Task: inverse folding
């Protein structure tokens, strides 16, 4: 059997990129909720100790009877073969040549429903669906068919499945050992709404059809909802539900919430919504985040934002640490002397008296292997309209680089072979971004201004340059467009790497020995050295704990 070259590359990259990614965040924006008519979805791919490079699968026709080999992490090292499609679309990262994008977040759910014999884990399922789908609806149908035919070996999963016209959210879980297929629900996000996922099942009740579509094999409520025909009957069979069909909740049956799912996961959704509606309204859900389910037991699945949302807004949302909210990670003594929103592991710990404690889990976190914001625009040629703003490491600590879906080469700093997790390299985007971030983390308030200056400089440049680039690219022939957009994507990445090298050198010089020297335009300039101030909450906590020990006294 011959292994399809594009899939071989994808499968190897998927194995490297995704196995540790067990705590991710997705934000979704409908086309009428965005400032320019874009559909937007995002992905912070979070998990310690891994790099998640950018992948490329080129389009191609395939011979009748050709097979392809899957090797994901869910089935260990076992190689599994499936039939190749007659034609596969090109895929860059998690967006294909038709601007179809799929991103994910894991919620585990009923552990007994994992089927280790299933061929597909969630990441290989996403990859194959992107190669075979020209729309979001088609991608959902393909994912259903693949799981029915070959089985699913991951736990509970949520997917944002989007194209230039629509955004869908899909929740899927398997049926347990020895049973192929899965139970799932997909709902269309209203065009004027925003939605989010963060490691918790969120779909509860959903519109229901009278019967399944015979051709597709699942139920459809046109334009609103799709779901597996046995999603309710299987829950009854397993003893998860015994009420009337109309009251059935996917989440309560397959992914019921516990404290962790609410505070570590739903809180991220809450904070995103709070940025885009009346904060007082969202603060009414604080009892829910504090586990007071008798007061409130759920967040809305989506909301209509008070103002339309831009790509830059969403980039900043991906960097959130609950700043300015009741969960602000910079505002108490645990933020340390430099008001840092970052915390060491573990998430859960005990006080000396045995009290069970925890730390917040924000959208922006240090363990991201990569971050992306996918923008899909229906009024432009696909190769131009589809952009993945991408980088490797923590969204808060990187600049998003525009990567067009019509390219035919991955920039070297984002390639798998240049991002070895075991060895530092200045040619690696992962390591250069981590190099800078790990200088900033422990002295956040002193250094973050320098990083924000470089981040804003790059993202401002990209946004301004893209206007001219896209006008020019839209007028080119298809072949010319591919070469032009590939060249621009390579240049954008090179610019980021050079700016981050400059930033790293500035930080070590400007902040050497824990002082600060003045700088201008990313360069240290002559001037008076200063000592950055401690955070007020830290000073007050030191005084409260040590009494008069550090209080200055008058001489007697």
Result:
């Amino acid at each position: 059997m011959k292994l399809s070259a594009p899939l071989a590359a994808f499968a190897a990259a998927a194995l490297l990129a995704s196995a540790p990614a067990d705590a991710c965040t997705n934000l979704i924006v409908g086309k009428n909720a965005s400032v320019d008519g874009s559909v937007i979805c995002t992905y912070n791919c979070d998990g310690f100790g891994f790099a998640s490079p950018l992948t490329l699968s080129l389009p191609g026709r395939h011979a009748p009877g050709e097979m392809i080999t899957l090797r994901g992490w869910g089935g260990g090292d076992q190689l599994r073969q499936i039939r190749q499609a007659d034609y596969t679309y090109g895929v860059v990262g998690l967006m294909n040549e038709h601007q179809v994008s799929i991103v994910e977040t894991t919620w585990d759910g009923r552990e007994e429903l994992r089927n280790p014999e299933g061929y597909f884990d969630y990441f290989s399922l996403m990859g194959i669906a992107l190669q075979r789908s020209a729309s979001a609806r088609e991608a959902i149908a393909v994912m259903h068919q693949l799981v029915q035919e070959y089985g699913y070996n991951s736990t509970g999963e949520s997917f944002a499945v989007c194209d230039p016209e629509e955004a869908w959210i899909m929740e899927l879980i398997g049926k347990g050992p020895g049973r192929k297929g899965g139970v799932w629900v997909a709902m269309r996000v209203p065009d004027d709404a925003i939605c989010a996922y963060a490691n918790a099942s969120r779909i509860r009740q959903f519109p229901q059809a009278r019967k399944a579509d015979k051709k597709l094999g699942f139920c459809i409520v046109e334009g609103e909802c799709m779901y597996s025909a046995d999603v309710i009957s299987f829950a009854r069979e397993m003893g998860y539900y015994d009420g009337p069909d109309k009251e059935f909740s996917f989440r309560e049956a397959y992914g019921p919430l516990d404290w962790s799912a609410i505070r570590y996961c739903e809180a991220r959704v809450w904070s995103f919504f709070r940025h885009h509606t009346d904060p007082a309204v969202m603060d009414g859900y604080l009892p829910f985040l504090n586990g007071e389910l008798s007061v409130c037991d759920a967040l809305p699945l989506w909301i209509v934002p008070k103002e339309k949302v831009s790509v830059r807004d969403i980039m900043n949302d991906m960097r959130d640490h609950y700043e300015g909210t009741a969960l602000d990670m910079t505002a108490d003594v645990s933020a340390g002397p430099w008001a840092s929103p970052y915390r060491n592991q573990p998430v859960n710990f005990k006080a000396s008296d045995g009290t069970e404690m925890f730390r917040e889990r924000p959208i922006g976190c240090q363990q991201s292997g990569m971050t992306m914001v996918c923008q899909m625009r229906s009024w432009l040629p696909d190769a131009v309209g589809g952009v993945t703003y991408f980088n490797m490491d923590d969204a808060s600590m990187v600049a998003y680089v525009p990567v067009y879906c019509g390219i035919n080469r991955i920039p070297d700093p984002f390639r798998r072979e240049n991002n070895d997790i075991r060895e530092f390299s200045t040619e690696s985007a992962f390591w250069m971004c981590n190099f800078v971030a790990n200088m900033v983390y422990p002295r956040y308030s002193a250094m973050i201004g320098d990083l924000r200056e470089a981040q804003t400089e790059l993202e401002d440049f990209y946004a301004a340059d893209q206007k001219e680039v896209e006008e020019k690219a839209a007028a080119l022939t298809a072949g010319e467009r591919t070469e032009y957009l590939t060249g621009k994507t390579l240049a954008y990445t090179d610019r980021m790497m050079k700016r981050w090298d400059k930033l790293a050198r500035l930080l070590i010089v400007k902040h050497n020995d824990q002082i600060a020297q003045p700088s201008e335009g990313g360069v240290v300039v002559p001037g008076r050295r200063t000592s950055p101030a401690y955070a007020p909450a830290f000073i007050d906590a030191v005084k409260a704990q040590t009494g008069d020990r550090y209080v200055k006294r008058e001489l007697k």
